[in-house]
Each structure stands twice: as C-alpha cells, then as structure tokens.
User: What shape does this take?
Amino acid sequence: MKNKNLRDRSHLIRDLQRRLEKIANAKTKAWWERYLKQIIPFRGVKMDGIRSVLHTWYAQNKIADTLTPGMQKKLALALFREKHAEDKLAGILFFQAILEPQGQVDWRKDQEDFAQLFRDGHIFDWNICDWLCVRVLGPLIQQVGKPCAQALSEWRKAGNLWQRRASVVAFVNLAKRGNGNFRGFTPMLLRNCSVVLKHPERFSKTGVGWVLRELAQSDVDTVIAFIDTNLESFSRESLNNATKHMPDKTRQRLIQSLSRASSE
Assistant: This one.
C-alpha cells in the first residue's frame, strides 16, 4: 500500500507539472531566474497561473474524494521537494488555499514538517521562504496565537539561514499590531530579531529590517531603542528598511551612527 501511495503521488505531481508547463512563458521564466540570480529554476508561470492550475488539477483529479487529508498533506509537502519554484509555490498554495480552509493544518506537527524541509535543503531562497511565511506560517500564528508563535520563534536558533529568517519574517503581517496580538508579543519578536541579526548573511539582516519596519508602526520607541542597542549588527540595507517610516530626524541619526561605527 505504501508503494502504491508513492506511485499515485508521483503520478499526480507529474500531472500538475505538465499542466504548469502548458502555460509556461519563456520571458517570465527568464525574468524570474535573473531576478533570483539563477539560484532556483523557474518554469515561467505567474502566481495567478499557479493558483488556477492547482485548483483545476485538484478538482479534475478528484483529490478531495480519493486522498485522505493526511495523504493530501504529504502530497503538498512533496511539491516542496521538486526543483522548480512553481512546484514549491504550488505546495504553499495547497496549504493556504485548500488544506487550511478545510481545517486540516495541525500546527504542532506541520511546523516540524516545514522545519524538515528547511533542514533538508528544499527551501533555499528568499522567495520560497517568504511566500511560506506570509501565506502559511503567519496565518497559522494568527489563528493559533501564542503557542504557535513560541514554537516558530525557536527557529531563530536554527543552523539553516532560511529557517532562521522565517523566525522573523513569519511575523511580518502581525508585527504592526505589536502586543495587540497577545501579551509578550513584542519582547518575543525582538528576542528573535536580536539572535537572527547577529548572523552575517545578508538575508538574516534584511529579514530583521523588514519586520522591524512593521513593528515600528505599533511601538516606534521600542524599535528605536532596540536599534540603538544592536546598531553594530545592522547592515545599511537592513537599517534603511527598519527606519523607513520613522521621522527623518530619527532616521538620519541612526544611519549616521551606523556610518560612524562602521568607519571606526
């Protein structure tokens, strides 16, 4: 039975891939591969096209009727293990648009499955990482609340760059509410930021800059204090993002302080 399930899953994935290839566009493929600096191959299908293909494929293959929720989840996770960006994005949309509305996402187990995808190297660029954060992980945190947020916050300790980035980017759409999400939200998020920011990779620092920009909408004084305390760990790029909506006087002070610290 296990081998049959694997064969069925492979057949369904190949069918989805054929459908994506039928609407692929060479210019779209070239643009995305150039934008992502050839890190990941693309087929050349925009997000709306992926979403349309996914729903048609799901309906025409009668997946809701023929696969249990657990098998569907395994199928969605298997899409992340394919090499093309659109296949991985289809996996993300499978969780967001099909499994979550059906109440089939178990954050305790599924966050570990996602963590394993990072550890196994199936999520290795900012595009897939951030789509997963914004479309799946963030809504899970919003739905479940503090327990889920705390579990995903543990990812700040991960050895994998992209999993660490997810420990802050997953909170981007929640950060503007600060402690309005739940008591202790802001200190928890700043703890994540302080750990991730100390790593030298560009995308560790830009993830922090992005989420601080949003957090500043709810508690700008706390964000300014955090930046002052951790200033030397910022890159100019991440600081520019973090201070984007701050008053000009404050923004310039922080940028100039970083410039002086960098030149010493």
